[in-house]
Model the fold of this input.
Amino acid sequence: MIDDLNTGKGIPKWLDWARRIQSIAQTGLAFNQSEYDIERFNQLQNIAAEIIEEHTELKKTGLFENFNLQKGYATPKIDVRGAVVKDGQILLVQEKSDEHWCMPGGWADVGEGPADSVVREIREESGFETKVVKIVGVYDANRSGRQLELYHAFKVVFMCELLGGKATPSNETLAVEFYDFDSLPELSQNRTNTYHLEHVFRHVQNPNELTFFD
Done:
């Protein structure tokens, strides 16, 4: 995770440059076979890693190895989050990683539909069974988050109906609770922030609220 935010697009310029260089190199490595091109694109990967190392505590060697794990055409990752509301309260889980709170969710899995992904994530992280009702919003994670991931990401927040189950923490969560919208705990900002929850609350107040998108 990269804890740095700037003005404009919401990301620091150095990270924007590093991401673009890395994505060009990743795509180039996927579609070029000559030794000359492979060498040049690996050099670009190395430059991107050097830029990020210069501005963070991350090490170039580890970054370069991580870049090489990313195969194929470079494209944003997808984070799915489930908004589950009961009696006017929003379901939040406490993350083990930072001990802060967020709507249950995570990276969408390959081979799984986005709605299925969020239902699974809710079950695994909170113990509750749900079904997807509609989409609250589709967000550029860089614009609506306070902390930045290494790779560009989109966040999809789904409004979900509670079907059953009971509050059950997982190997990723410390606690599971419902909170009033005006009395929230400290949020895990890169996963869920007040911007997302404001949009969820609009849908609670008005079932005909339109889907938000960046």
Observations:
- The chain is about 35% helix and 25% strand.
